[in-house]
Input
Amino acid sequence: MRIKTVPTVPFRDQRPGTSGLRKKTREFMQPNYLENFVQSVFNAIRALQNRDREGALPQSASPADFDNTTLVVGGDGRYYNRPAIQAIIRIAAGNGFARVLVARGGILSTPAMSAVIRRRKALGGLVLSASHNPGGPDEDFGIKYNMQNGGPAPEQVTERIFRETLKIDRYCSLDSPDVDIDRDGSLKIAGTEVAIFDPLADYSALMEELFDFEALRAHFRNGFRMLFDAMHGATGPYARHIFEERLGAPPGTVLHGDPLEDFGGHHPDPNLAYAADLVRLLADGNAPDFGAACDADGDRNMILGRTVFVSPGDSLAVIAEHAAHAIPGYRGGLSGVARSLPTSTAVDRVARAAGINSFETPTGWKYFGALLDAGLCTLCGEESFGTGSNHIREKDGIWAVLCWLSLLAVSKKSVAEVLHDHWRKFGRSYFQRHDYDKLVAKSAAAMMQDLEAQMPGMPGRSLGNFVVSSAEDVSYRDPVTGAETEHAGIRIVFSNDSRIVFRLSGTGTEGATLRLYLERYERENTDADVETVLAPLAEIARELLGLQQRFGREKPTVIT
Ligand code: G1P
Ligand code: ZN
Output
């Protein structure tokens, strides 16, 4: 089979965002759109490996740089997953990879991708997902490159990829028939071995190393019940295998467990608004006391008790509080913790009590990679329903559920009791995120600029009943690599430890999305209504932005 060089012209909009390249599916379906991006990833990797020979494709289209290397490919099963995988196989073979590992059925959760790259010592992997965004021809698609450490490419690499997309003039591919990706096995295409592998094996083995499966099995044997909502994304097969087959949870524990290309027409996003079925089922008097859900690619999670919602910041703090005694994989204690800037400060208080460091990073999992690689932190999390640890380099939904299962099994308490115990000990960070979707991008950018201009005069000012103690446009210097990131978000801290963080989303595919993150800390008053407690902060934020005047928006599109 001959490798062919296909001429192409750049698309000018292929800059990866917070988490890879996300676009409407139809944009990805344009001729050469996906091919250009994949070739640009390979060009960037090749260039960086060769310490920068400008990443150009060698004239003879048989580059040798990848001849010892393995690429992993899989996705969350959304519409266009399969054609995209076939295209990637051809381009990877055209670029001379020694091996391409393709998840059977094309389904590989993001955390499993990270585990597979690490365990099989691959060069990297391509994840096909738009995470929690809806799927279908008129919805969203995405692609993200993960590096040798199993984590998303850091900004220097994604910017390099972007530069390659602007100058690409050809890509390497093959005229080969589609590979049957539904059966395990391997075949050779040109010089490349294409192997179809079991997407559940490495991930389940890793979970079994971290958690006490025997104790969890006993917990289910003793009558413990839970509900897990896979939202028709990639976690269905993992959850059935781990919770039902391995741990003995009764059949029916996993809801919406079959991956569907359109996720059943829903947003595969685990929050109170979109996991409505789960929330309704748990409200039933006979329902289990523990419920959880994951997003389409399995990196996000939501934790619920029958009567309580565990906010992601609290979930991270509670796991940090209990990991060392409830989970074998963390018995040695934690080296440190990390959270993104907008995430509530709850975990900082646990870290302080334990005498370990707590890091504050910009939004996006990629910023945790360097800290984890350097052994500076063990657990990390984001307010956007992301929790994870040093076991891989992605956030991990099923792992978070296993953490909660473990601490419920050890403590023999309900979710609500565990949470209230935590608040009693550390106080409570009331937290909400308010999203305003589909704003005109230019006006949203102008609004943020105007807000930024107000920051220097803020400290000392009274806003409502709150006094500003600091106000800034936050920038971050990675303590390990020294890399600088600017405009991570605008943060106003008040004298009573309350905070507002403002930023624009980096994952949206339509207009701009404004995110307002509200946090109010209370040492004693831990049982109040979240909305009521945070209402004054929401008002301050809206006023400062002039939201009503600029966009006429009365209220947020989504509150999480
Ligand atoms: C959002 C979340 C962020 C998360 C990312 C990828 O990014 O806020 O925490 O890492 O999705 O799942 P944003 O749209 O805010 O840039
Ligand atoms: Zn996701």
